[in-house]
């Protein structure tokens, strides 16, 4: 009977303590299981009530003095067991979802933006995003936005928050981070690597600060354990939570909070000073007018034009007064205005210049930027000169007066004639005057239209065309008629050039002799002597448009296939760069 009384007493005591514990303690037990426990407790109560009156009377005897000592010992054992269970639950690291018996008040809470994951960028690793950088090595433009959004989740995944400082990160982790960024962004230079790693460090510190804030706002240990990142072991996380919730850390945090309250916040959000400055330069007519002061004022002004707070309004008004006074006195308004408004810059950082920009670094970059700008200006000037020279060269391409000598050939004597005016007689008509020009040279080795002049021609600059449609003696790739040759240098037969001022008439010049031809076979006569047969061949056509060595044949000319050469050293009628003598053209077509 005594054993039964003790059993009944323990059951009722356990029931009451279980109900109290479920109301006060937050754990990971599912609501359905809690309901079952409550039902078990109710059943135990009904069992007690359904017992006979005799048994109930015996249970009431538990409070007798003779049983008080044993009952207190059993209660102390039960309390010790419950404390151990509660300690195990409080130290349990796993548990990401909380369930309470009370209705959740957070269901009406405002939905907040979660951490950036950038899953859309990770889906397409084969297409790299282009990122622009300033001359100081800071990223800007549309690509920098995606870069910043990608670096945040990347560094949170690979670098645990339990790391004391960013400087203690290993080179292996830096290499992994850099390779991952290179796989998705066009960043290959060393200065880009330095800038990206510094940006990662800043993003890592910001995420760590936000996490510490959530730890301090948590109400119990279970909520703090739910904040544990996946890359942090439970043991390390408990040490981290203990450190960040200590009194020493609270004193240090309060001191930095006090410093932050003295600062003037900006309105750039994620844009930052570098992107804001580049946007202002792109929208400005003169990018050089965008100074550090203007960037700072813009960053402390809302979209409606009002300052962010009263302190910012006072500083902006003071800057405007200083700038007005500088203009009236004729002084140069530069970066010193911002220093007068806000005081001197810190040694390691300059205001409104982006991340990690110091005075020494800025001075070095300004020197390099100035040198590069001067080189670019010189390059543009030289490119302009080259374009002008190319235009002039295209105009006077065929008007070269100096002799062209090959690299491997010796200098030759030139028999130049003074530039005398002359009439150009039609080489196909003995009495037709086709144009006027100036005689430049008679050296047979001169180059005219990529061909040697030869002994029977003159180098002539065409000034006017009397018969515009008259064919040239030697057509070129860019001109075939005398009209197209105006302003250019051509070759013309000596006996068809009449120098003005010598009192000669066209009929005084001996005409070209007639050529004896047969049905197909023909004899080739010397240009200067009709009695000398220089070779034999077979003529093919007299069509003026027929091509010989890539040039049209022209009127009163014959396309001949050369079979035999009788006179060695005889010049061709139309010389080329490769063919000069008749024996060079055996078994080929000539004109």
UniProtKB/TrEMBL annotation:
Residues 372-399 form a coiled coil. Residues 50-59 have a biased composition (Low complexity). The keyword Disulfide bond does not apply. The keyword Coiled coil applies. Residues 60-85 have a biased composition (Basic and acidic residues). Pfam families: Transposase_24. PANTHER family: OS02G0472350 PROTEIN, OS10G0338966 PROTEIN-RELATED. This is Uncharacterized protein LOC108831042. It comes from Raphanus sativus.
